[in-house]
Write a structure and sequence with these properties.
Layout (H helix, E strand, L loop, with lengths): L3 E2 L19 H11 L25 E4 L10 H10 L10 H10 L13 E2 L4 E2 L3 E5 L7 E6 L5 E5 L2 H27 L3 H5 L3 H13 L4 H13 L2 H28 L5 H4 L17 H15 L6 H15 L1 H12 L15 E4 L18 E2 L3 E6 L4 H15 L8 E5 L10 E5 L5 E2 L3 E8 L2 E8 L8 E3 L4 E6 L5 E9 L1 E7 L2 E4 L1 E9 L10 E10 L2 E9 L2 E9 L9 H7 L8 H8 L6 E6 L4 E5 L16 E2 L26 E3 L3 E4 L6 E3 L12 H14 L4 H12 L3 H14 L7 H16 L16 H23 L1 H10 L26 H11 L18 H16 L3 H4 L11 H5 L4 E2 L17 E4 L6
Helix pairs in contact: 1-2, 4-8, 4-10, 6-13, 7-8, 7-10, 11-12, 11-21, 14-15, 16-17, 18-19, 18-22, 19-20, 20-21, 20-23
């Protein structure tokens, strides 16, 4: 077997000394030719080492993370890419294999897995070493990069050197992106990168959730270290070494003029004189970065004000008793038909409906107004586009329907061909260029792991593998955010806290921008302003019983963005994680809301993390509550925002269940999550049905489990799980209308073919069953409205739509990256349609809606409604269904669904075919254990 060793730094191009005002293709060619100076030589080292003795996966661990490892590009490389599509080394070499699984999964075997994934074994075979770097000239760490993917394999002989190397490697691969997101976390992106509407929306979305001052960021570090003993001190040392490595690369790339070209294009560096600075990183930057990631993927809850508005609408239409019943049936807090991750019947009660609610603070009808975030707009910040962007950002922030994404398929060794557990899992974090995540291997004292980490937070591997175990996560969404109604006093900026009139704390950010080469958005500026209380930031204002209140949101992880570092440190420590139990103990230290999965050679495990506050008796987590001592979290200390939390045993957890699936579905019986939609049809069913079938047959292999994931990734949830029932209603009598009959035939043929959104052949950019897909895409919103609005009324239908979106097809603009985001079918009314249609058909329904809506319960009237809307949908052209956007022309169905790597820097990549699967993904099967 080949020996494994370490490697050198990527080839780098110098930043040009001249940057003309106008760059045509010819001038770019001339410029590039002039720029190609001798490459900076990395320190050479002969670090050949024996095959990693600490790798127990037997060559059966694989992973993938598109588009590629290299997320940095010099100005010369950016210009080549923009003009000719030329990619820097390793910028997109994982995009093709990732894309090809959509067409290649059908013939997948274990031997072919690494045609679509990377070999995730520890180390690098000696004949695959591309380069070896001694960062900063240090002798206690090397960074080896492999020829195939350019992934850094960091090996240190001291803890400091190892973490220094991790920081240096992170900056080599993601410096610009790290800089972007430390500014996002501080609400200062537009001043740094330009005033494009997307930049405005990004900084507004995250700063509203985490409006921290620099002192707040430092306090969080101090508290995390102080509360975690020796491990806290080690985390501080690791973070400081990591930052030293980042800054060493900044200095080296600045003096050598091979820093990311975006610094020139955004005006931070001068291409002629090299004037300007790239600011060094500091430890508070890591907290700012963590606040963005935690807010985006690990903060379940919110939405209490929207819940209150829809409850009031239901009560207004039906009366208090019946209206509450209707509301609860749509809320599906504990639906008996919901797919579960822990499916053995064990109950984990959390955030359940109290017998008698206490302290509820429902707003007076029509009194709710959203608290403004943006003030004093000038220039391009005052345009209609800018204000619309702000509205979208606010809605995204305040909803409970957060796009957490990610999936997991884990099978016990009892049901596999080898007798060893198998896992296929990973996070769906959207698609960016460069990617938010980055791959690395890190080996040093107390550290032994390979996998993915968020750029700028890669002092530890956050999702990946250790020596004899792998782990991954999905977003869980349980409610750790509560809304409090603080009664105002004196004026709109003072509130009662335990009977004392207390001033709100105002935090502000003023941002301004001007056009740059990278962003031509006209000059503009605005001021962001948040009022904070002891109960969190103000999000809405209203009256309750005629008294003026401010609605605030209190998140258990607010002011605790740094706390999870201890859990990740433990996951990377081979002396800590040695079993399912120690794995569960490690992830208990992660305060964000995630589902964690584990596999080694003999065992599997699951644990749901997050600081779940213990609420006062009678408090209903679904609605705003009065800001009074009687209704606060138990033992809540507003100074530190700490409280009593539910014990680990109360969190959904399991060891060695026959199989686990997760796609952001309900965790366990009686465990209520904040988002709506945990009903009879959920995208988790796409995994559940396939994995359950595999387990029943036995002999599961890595390839068969991967195929199950890949098959679900191309499935249209509506077509697979709901459309057959709709067609059953329509076909309850002969369809005589020719237009409707033709549509029914196309839809039926599609269901028979498997209900996939799949190309006719690899690279065809055209779907099989394209007409059926177009018809369903057009029909779904029409049929939902016609089915439910007449019975609910316009106001309640609209209110429920604000709680749970109607649809989330691949071509819809949704999620953290808008359209072309891959992740689909997380939120929608599929369960409502399913339950209602089954009720109309007279079939058994557990946890059904409070009444029948389609045709008011009449099968013939329901059929008429479905046929009428189907005819309308069938008559819509592709251009009407897929109207086009900045990526696609109108009518291009494949393009409308396609995945786009959203540019966060200067390098662009081509579109890939739609797949609903993790961005970073592992396929693992361990053969032995320590």
């Amino acid at each position: 077997m080949p020996r494994r060793t370490a490697r050198t730094a990527l080839d780098r191009l110098r930043t040009p000394r001249r940057f003309p005002k106008f760059l045509g293709a010819a001038s770019i060619c001339a410029l590039i030719a002039a720029l190609l100076s001798p490459l900076t030589q990395a320190a050479a080292a002969d670090s050949t080492a024996a095959l990693a003795a600490n790798d127990y996966c037997g060559g059966q661990c694989s992973d993938i993370l598109p588009p590629g490892q290299n997320g940095n590009a010099t100005l010369a490389q950016i210009l080549l890419n923009q003009a000719f599509g030329i990619q820097p080394d390793h910028a997109e070499d994982q995009l093709g294999p990732y894309n090809n699984l959509a067409s290649g999964a059908a013939t997948l075997t274990d031997a072919k897995i690494n045609d679509f994934f990377n070999d995730a074994s520890f180390g690098v075979a000696s004949d695959q070493v591309a380069s070896t770097t001694a960062p900063g000239g240090r002798t206690d760490v090397t960074i080896v990069r492999d020829k195939k993917t350019g992934v850094p394999h960091i090996t240190g002989t001291t803890r400091y050197g190892t973490e220094y190397g991790a920081g240096y490697a992170a900056a080599q691969d993601r410096l610009w992106l790290m800089d972007v997101f430390r500014h996002v976390g501080r609400g200062q992106l537009t001043s740094f990168a330009g005033g494009a509407p997307s930049n405005q929306g990004l900084e507004q979305e995250f700063w509203r959730n985490a409006p921290y001052t620099e002192a707040d960021l430092q306090t969080q570090i101090d508290n995390a270290i102080a509360n975690n003993g020796t491990r806290g001190q080690q985390a501080l040392g690791d973070a400081n070494a990591y930052i030293d490595g980042i800054n060493a690369y900044i200095d080296a790339s600045d003096s050598g003029r091979y820093f990311p070209g975006e610094y020139v294009l955004t005006g931070h560096k001068d291409s002629i004189t090299n004037a300007g600075t790239i600011d060094h990183f500091k430890i508070t930057d890591l907290v700012a970065l963590a606040s963005v990631i935690g807010s985006l993927f690990g903060s379940g809850g919110g939405g209490e004000v929207n819940n209150a508005i829809s409850l009031l609408a239901a009560q207004s239409k039906y009366g208090v008793t019946e209206g509450t019943k209707v509301w609860e049936s749509f809320r599906e807090r504990n639906d008996p038909e919901a797919v579960l991750t822990v499916h053995n019947g064990e109950s984990f009660p959390y955030a359940s409906k109290p017998d008698t609610a206490q302290g509820e603070a429902l707003p007076d009808a029509g009194s709710v107004t959203q608290e403004p975030l943006v003030y004093d707009r000038t220039g391009s910040a005052a345009t209609a586009t800018a204000t619309s962007t702000s509205a979208t950002a606010a809605a995204t922030t305040l909803t409970s329907a957060k796009r957490g994404m990610s999936n997991a398929l884990v099978v016990s060794g009892k049901y596999t061909a080898s007798g060893h557990p198998i896992a296929v899992f990973g996070p769906q974090t959207g698609y960016f260029a460069p990617q938010l995540l980055m791959l690395q291997e890190i080996q040093g004292p107390g550290l032994s792991a390979r996998g993915a980490s968020f750029a700028g937070l890669s002092m530890y591997v956050e999702l990946g593998r250790g020596q004899d175990y792998s782990w991954s996560a999905t977003t869980s969404g349980q409610d750790i955010i509560d809304t409090y109604a603080v009664e105002l006093c004196q004026d709109d900026y003072h509130y009662l806290y335990h009977g004392t009139c207390t001033a709100m704390d105002k935090v502000e950010r003023t941002n301004s921008w001007k056009p740059t080469t990278a962003d031509s958005t006209a000059a503009g500026s605005y001021r962001m302003q948040v009022y904070r209380t002891k109960y969190g930031p103000v999000e809405y204002r209203a009256t309750v019983g005629g008294k003026k209140v401010a609605y605030t949101t209190l998140r258990s992880s607010y002011m605790h963005e740094a706390d999870s570092i201890i859990g990740f440190q433990m996951l990377n420590d081979p002396d800590y994680v040695k079993s399912p139990g120690t794995f569960q103990s490690a992830v208990q230290h992660i305060n964000y809301t995630f589902n964690w999965f584990y596999a080694d050679s003999s065992h599997t495990a699951y644990y749901n993390s997050g600081d779940n506050p213990v609420r006062a008796t009678g408090v209903d987590a679904e609605f705003p509550v009065r800001a009074q001592a009687a209704y606060e979290w138990q033992n809540w200390d507003p100074t530190t925002n700490t409280a009593s939390y539910t014990p680990p045993s109360a969190h959904p957890n399991s060891i060695d269940q026959d199989y686990y699936i997760s796609w952001n579905n309900k965790q366990a019986k009686d465990y209520t999550t904040a988002p709506w939609g945990d009903g009879s049809v959920h995208r988790g069913n796409l995994l559940e049905d396939r994995v359950k079938k595999l387990v029943a047959a036995g002999g599961v292999t890595r390839s068969s489990l991967t195929k199950a994931m890949a098959d679900a990734a191309l499935a249209d949830l509506r077509a697979e799980d709901v459309l057959p029932k709709l067609l059953k209603v329509i076909n309850s009598s002969t369809v005589t209308d020719t237009t409707a009959a033709a549509a029914v035939t196309k839809l039926s043929d599609w269901v028979t073919a498997g209900a996939k959104r799949k190309e006719t052949s690899a690279g065809s950019k055209a779907y099989a069953n394209a007409d059926a897909i177009r018809i369903l895409d057009a029909w779904w919103p029409l049929l939902v409205k016609a089915e439910f609005q007449p019975g609910l009324g316009t106001d309640l239908y609209t209110a429920f739509s604000n709680n749970l979106p109607i649809d989330e097809s691949p071509s819809a603009a949704h999620g953290p990256t808008g359209a072309h985001a891959g992740s689909s079918f997380q939120y929608g009314w599929w369960s409502y349609v399913d339950k209602d249609i089954r009720a109309v058909l007279g079939e058994s329904v557990q946890g059904g809606l409070s009444q029948k809506y389609c045709g008011s319960g009449s099968l013939s009237a329901c059929r008429d409604t479905l046929i009428s809307t189907l005819k309308t949908a069938a008559g819509l052209t592709a251009a009407q269904v897929y109207p086009g956007d900045d990526q696609c022309s109108a009518g291009d169905q494949w393009c409308a669904d396609s995945i786009v790597q959203r540019t966060l820097g200067g390098i662009k990549h081509g579109k890939i075919t739609w797949q609903n699967r993790p961005t970073y993904q592992q396929v693992v099967e361990y053969t032995s254990h320590r």
